[in-house]
Protein 1
Amino acid sequence: MSAPERRQIVLGSETHRKFVGSLVANLERGWLVTLDPPRRTIPQNSTLHMLIADAVGGGLSTDTGRRLTQDEAKVAFVTGWMIESGHASDVVAFSGHPVQLRRSTTTFNKEEFAGLIEYIMAECAQRGIPLRDPADYPR
């Protein structure tokens, strides 16, 4: 079996496990094998975007009263969740201005994504922003 140049495989079945095992067993020395936990799910991603739309539609604003766009709301929620949950979120100087650095949600695992969703719901509740019934969000 020839080695793949680069491949990403989701372990969805025993067949996948055996295939990955055979790939690894036949690799030459020096290959890097990386294992990652499951990433966010499609329903989680849909829920995130619905929550953000609901929050913005419900009047999400800064502490000074400026209404946020959906893009701004996502940055604010992700950065707020990162700070509250103890994840690194740095402010750095870039071209002489402070810039907030945060992780992209594409790198979140399922548990982190679930934590972000809970954070958004709690933040909206604290601010009195109505959200649809939790059962209406994708699962």
Note: The mean pLDDT is 90.
Protein 2
Amino acid sequence: MTGVWRVVRVAGLLLAITVPAVAQDAPETSVFDAMVGKWVGEGTLMGRPARFTADWSARDDGFYVLSFTNAFAGSDGQVTPVLSAVATYLPRGQEATGVWLDTRPQRIELSSVLSETSIVTTWVAPDERGRTEYRLEPDGSLRVLDFVETDGRMHPFGEALYTRAGRN
């Protein structure tokens, strides 16, 4: 079992422990279904040019998994990896709960509000709080905005526009 899938499995087990059983009230299709597939993005991270990847997958048990990377992108073409992470979400109706595990290492609790075209996730870790907004655009792209809370206010720290990578 590869390291990433070991993390996915652990994340699923953590959710199974921390998320109470809830009746299946999720719609047959959801914004998560629309996100499934591989995405590549460009934008900014902490004020610097950056590149991003996101690979969304659906599991048979109702969980959705996001495998994510970001990297600074130099003007010389040099790419410097910053972070890799795996997030596991369990949608229920217009909400989802989840957990994010990353290479810092950090374990972050996720609480999301869903619409037909967006996932707005509030996240909480021992030393940080923030919000990530995933929005499907009419042209088929995915816009992601990241905010971190400092001094009681949300401040942007990342923005990316993703397009689908290859065939999904």
Note: The longest helix spans residues 3-18.
Protein 3
Amino acid sequence: MHRRTKQASAPPSTVAPIQSAGHEPPAEPIATPLRSPAISAVAVTLTAVFAALAVWVIAVPVAGVTLTAGGLTVSLTAVALVSLGSGCAASLSYLIMRGFRSGAVMWTVIACTVLVLSMAGPLLSGARDSALVALELMHLAVGVTMIVGLRRFVSRSMSRAFDQRTAASDSASSAAGSE
């Protein structure tokens, strides 16, 4: 056998060194904070709130619409609070239902039903003409943003977290098998 005395320089290895028995590598986070389902749900909720506020700003100060519903003037604060409350309820229910088999599909059906029913609110409040259009647009802005946003972005962050957990457990089991 020939023994090499001089090694060719190789690029640095991208594979983590094998740990000796008893020394485990530091735990990696399951999901980065910006990709966690809860943070994604908060981002979607805030986007829905800002969408409703944008409709209010365009309707009231810009277009000069008197926004009244049920005899009360709809203020910017009321729009923000109601859309925030409904967004939080949608996010929380989605995060809970997502854990069940077909939970996301059931949540979507329920959320679409709630959105359709909420569209009757401005009609039943006595709002007319441009005020009715503005209120309906606010309902649509919040509802569609929540439904599409939660299904698209929270589902993606939840699958990433699952993929990272699976990869971490696979690498831990392969490292344990190589000892």
Note: Strands lie at 68-69, 72-73.
